[in-house]
């Protein structure tokens, strides 16, 4: 389903973007839609990469055999000195 949106854009920006659309042989609407699709895809890629990194971190943690105990939190000193309390 396609939804309509309303945008407020500076006149000079609008003039320049219309010229870009004209040069590319497309419409302003198509340019905006393409840009939004690219932003959406990039965000999906970021989420996928985050989930993969988190899964890898959990797997490495499980393989390490180290258990810090439930509720353990690093202190600031631990983080800076690279040690566990």
UniProtKB/TrEMBL annotation:
InterPro entries given in the database record: DUF6364, Ribbon_hlx_hlx
Pfam family membership, one: DUF6364
Domain of life: Bacteria
Keyword Coiled coil (UniProt): yes
Biological processes annotated in GO: regulation of DNA-templated transcription
Entry keyword annotation includes Signal: no
Coiled coil: 29-63
Name this protein carries in UniProt: DUF6364 family protein
């Amino acid at each position: 389903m396609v939804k309509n949106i309303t945008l407020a854009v500076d006149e000079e920006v609008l003039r320049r973007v219309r010229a870009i659309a004209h040069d590319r042989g497309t419409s302003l609407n198509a340019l905006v839609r393409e840009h939004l699709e690219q932003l959406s895809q990039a965000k999906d890629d970021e989420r996928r990469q985050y989930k993969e990194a988190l899964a890898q971190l959990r797997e490495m943690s499980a393989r390490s055999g180290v258990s810090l105990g439930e509720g353990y939190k690093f202190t600031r000193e631990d983080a800076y000195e690279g040690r566990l309390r």
